[in-house]
Amino acid sequence: MRKNKTPLGRAYDYKKAGDLLTSEQKYGSAVTKYEKASKHFAAAADIYEKIPQDNRTPIMEKHIKDFNNLSIKAKQKAEELENITGGPSLLKRILQGPRVRLIISLSIIILGLVLLAPTLTGNTIATLTTQTTNIIAGALVVIGIIACYFLIKNR
Question: Whole domain around residue 31: which residue ranges?
Fold first, then answer.
């Protein structure tokens, strides 16, 4: 799939990928592609909707309707394929909740802090040196903080 920078280009790319995966009966992957296509079609419509009403042409109005319809159709296709596969996977259902993501993020931070204190682990984390452990711990703390930031930002 080529890298498009516009929401509309990405939407069509994801839709094509979903169509291809559906023809290959890879429904689980196709669902993801159709969901992404739906989001990007909606984003393309939003771009036109941000234009003031008196500056819009009839073609722009038609694009807004078309992109919203394509977004709805892509979402319906994703739901249809989810029904074929028996719904979202167990892992996807578990990880959809914001609480679970927050718990995972906080767990990563806590694990990083535990690794930063070598006396807590008794300096016996496999055969890693204190410096290596500190690097790993620092990375885990940073990853956990970034994950928490995005969870809070997306609420």
Answer: 7-86
Q: Tell me, what amino acid is at 154? A: N
Choosing from 36, 54, 86, the residue where a domain stops is: 86
Closest by alpha carbon to 44, among 10, 79, 3, 2?
10
Contacts of 98 (CB under 8 A, 6+ apart): 151, 155
* pTM of the shown model: 0.53
Whether residues 27 and 74 fall in one domain: yes
Please indicate, yes or no, if residue 2 is contained in any of the structural domains: no
Q: What is the DSSP string of 77-138?
A: HHHHHHHHHTSS-HHHHHHTSHHHHHHHHHHHHHHHHHHH-HHHHTT-STT--HHHHHHHHH
Q: Encode pLDDT of 27-72 as tens digits.
A: 777 888 888 888 888 888 888 888 888 888 888 888 888 888 888 8
